[in-house]
Design goal:
By secondary structure, this protein is an alpha/beta fold. It has 20 helices and 7 strands. The longest helix is centred in the middle third of the chain and has 37 residues, at about 240-275. The chain is globular and about 85 Å long. Residues about 430-435 and about 455 have low confidence and may be disordered.
């Protein structure tokens, strides 16, 4: 949630910047006045340095609030190094909708956009959160895991293009291999780019190839050899086959380069995450592993005061749905405006946890039984996981399956049953009777349980 205005610094001035590629428009208003100044800022390191320092000289010792439509990027990152500038990132959709409200005609220009951003900063600053960067270690990890995901997505795009080409002239390859980005696929297609060339090869050479490249299931190798002998070319037109085969070889080189980049980033991620004191917390969760544990660590960061509750994490990440009401109607829908990579992290972890956690699998199956689709069920599971992740993160305690299951079992017992059990223990122990330490402990716990249950009731 945004910080109250009475907790913010005593700003000397307010500045809004409308970001562009080479030149940015800005508008400035000194605190306590209504007069605005405007100007242009060239996007060069030297121009940004001179622009930032002019405000330090004009308002010595006082902070300046700066609003811009970025949470990370070519302008915000360079401005972060100036301690006298307090940055307020504003979501582009927010400024876009505000512009629509102010200018229904749809007119737009850069100086006007800077002026509208300045309105948001001066009049509605309580709705925004000042940028408070995390530690360098966490920010580096956040960039690494996002860059790795970008390369994975790019590799997927390239393998989809390879699939499209292979379906045209050599579709059998898609049945023989599970993952087209695996090194064995590139080696296979470099050696036998077409089916006729493969069928002319000595079967023993093909058998040796699979064994040398790590595919050593004798049953699968023999199945492939039978299928190779029985396969029929999809087409026999060199005008189509030759360009497609060349395209596949080229794309495979791209995939190999992406594989190298992904491995390098993964190594850097593991080095950065393993030395962080909170890594043990997130690596303790079932199914997190070497890929998702660093992403969960990057998602929460080191600033435990940033979120007041798990509900804030659920809403900010986009996992929590949005509820709308109008008149007598009320409905819930998917949350669109959120950090997409953050939502993807929680969604992917929840989906993976179904394979490793019994209660998560049971919960997912229960959601499916209610008629929810796969992604809706996974989001519901992610909603629950965030509460657990948040609790462990705040308490700095690793996840323990047995403790969580015990708490779930305790919550599943009806209040009346627990009340009767607690009262029975209390009645069985007279106030002044002699008892052992274990009985005294049970009596004390029973009284506390009864007290809490009465409060719940």
């Amino acid at each position: 949630m945004p910080s109250p205005l009475n907790n913010e610094p005593d700003f000397a001035a307010f500045i809004a910047i409308d970001w562009a590629d080479r030149e940015h428009a800005w508008a400035m208003q000194v605190a306590g006045t209504t007069i605005r100044e405007t100007g242009k800022l060239r996007h060069t390191p030297e121009a940004i340095e001179a622009w930032a320092m002019q405000w330090a000289m004009r308002f010595p010792g006082r902070p300046v609030a700066v609003a811009l439509e970025q949470s990370r990027g070519h302008l915000l990152d360079p401005l972060r190094k100036y301690s006298h500038l307090v940055l307020y990132p504003i979501h582009p959709t927010t400024s876009k909708d505000y512009r629509k409200a102010m200018f229904p005609s749809g007119s737009k220009d850069d100086p006007g956009d800077a002026d509208l951003l300045l309105d948001l900063l001066t009049l509605h600053r309580d709705r925004f959160r000042a940028l408070n960067p995390d530690t360098e270690q966490i920010r580096k990890l956040q960039m690494l895991v996002e860059k790795r995901r970008q390369l994975v997505d790019e590799r997927t795009a390239q393998t989809n293009r390879i699939t499209d080409q292979l379906k045209l002239y050599f579709p059998q390859v898609l049945d023989w291999f599970d993952e087209l980005h695996a090194p064995i696929v590139a080696a296979f297609l470099r050696r036998w780019p077409t089916l006729p060339q493969l069928q002319q090869e000595d079967p023993q050479q093909v058998r040796d190839f699979f064994y040398q490249h790590g595919s050593r299931s004798q049953q699968r190798i023999e199945t492939r050899l039978v299928q190779i002998g029985q396969a029929i070319p999809a087409l026999q037109d060199p005008a189509v086959i030759d360009p497609a085969a060349l395209m596949v070889r080229t794309l495979l080189r791209v995939v190999e380069a992406l594989n190298d980049g992904i491995r390098a980033l993964q190594k850097s991620i593991e080095e950065a995450a393993s030395v962080h004191p909170d890594y043990a917390i997130f690596s303790s969760f079932p199914g997190a592993g070497r890929t998702l544990a660093p992403r969960l660590l990057a998602a929460f960061g080191s600033q435990r005061e940033r979120y007041g509750s798990a509900g804030e994490v659920q809403a900010f990440s986009g996992i929590a749905p949005v509820q709308q009401a109008s008149g007598k109607q009320c409905w819930t829908h998917f949350r669109w405006a959120c950090p997409k990579f953050l939502r993807q992290t929680f969604h992917e972890y929840a989906g993976l946890s179904v394979q490793f956690c019994s209660w998560a699998r049971a919960f997912y199956q229960k959601q499916k039984a209610k008629g929810n689709g796969h992604h809706a069920a996974v989001r519901s599971l992610a909603f629950k996981w965030i509460r657990i992740l948040f609790r462990c993160w705040q308490s700095r305690q690793p996840y323990q399956e047995e403790l969580h299951q015990a708490a779930r079992d305790a919550r599943s017992v009806p209040i009346a049953t627990k009340t009767i059990a607690a009262a029975t223990i209390i009645r069985g122990q007279a106030p002044g009777s002699k008892s052992g330490k274990r009985q005294d402990s049970q009596l004390k716990s029973a009284r506390e349980i009864l007290k809490s249950l009465m409060a719940e009731a």
